[in-house]
Amino acid sequence: MASYRTLNSQLIVADYARSYPEIVRGEGVYLYDSEGRRYLDAAGCTAAVTHIGHGDARVAEALAAQAKTLAVHPTHLFHSPLVEAYFERLCAFAPDGFSRAWTISGGTEAIENSLKLAYQYHRAKGRPKRTRFVGRWDSYHGNSVTALDVGGMVGRRSFYTALMPSQHLHLRSCQPYRRPAGQSEQAYEDELVTELADLVEAHPDEIAAFVAEPLVGSALGAVGPTPAYFERIAEICRAHDILIIADEVMTGFGRTGRNFGCEHFGTHADVLACAKGISGGYLPLGALLVRDEVAEVLRDSGDPFFSGQTYACIPLAAAVGLAVLDRIEGDGLVDNAREVGGYLKAQLSTLLEHPHVGDVRGEGLFLGIEFVADKTTKAPLDPDWRFSKRVEAAALHHGLVTLGARGTVDHVLGDHMLFAPPLILTTAQADELVAGLSASIDDALAACQA
Ligand SMILES: Cc1ncc(COP(=O)(O)O)c(C=O)c1O
Question: What pTM did the predictor assign?
Answer without folding.
Answer: 0.96
